[in-house]
Amino acid sequence: MPRALSSPEGVTVWSAATKPYGEVSETMTPDPATGQTVVTNLRLPGQYDERLLGSLGLQGPYYKWNRWYLPSVGRYMELDPLALEGGFDGVGWYAPDWYNYGDGNPLTNVDPTGRQTFVSLELCDSEVRGG
């Protein structure tokens, strides 16, 4: 997830503090050169914030290629598509695992498509310079 965006002059115009399941606290500062406010809708890997509930003061749902995700509860709104394709593990349609994000561990696992969890190999915060 992006942590900050800057203007061509290097002034931070957008920054975010996140909670483990993707809730975001955004700080937006108008670009001093243009006066425009910058916003990004990118969230956790594969997520796009549609900002559908912003008028209600709520975050999400975030779109994830195959289903919608609610960061406030850390769960998907729909059943895992793999379950619909016959990928049952014997626990039934409404088992918590079918709606979990990252197998319930967002600190080390990612689910970029909403279909399968992967262990994140990069567990440290990084910064991209000059990109």
From TrEMBL:
Transmembrane segments: none annotated. It comes from the Bacteria. This is Rhs protein. It comes from Anaeromyxobacter dehalogenans (strain ATCC BAA-258 / DSM 21875 / 2CP-1).
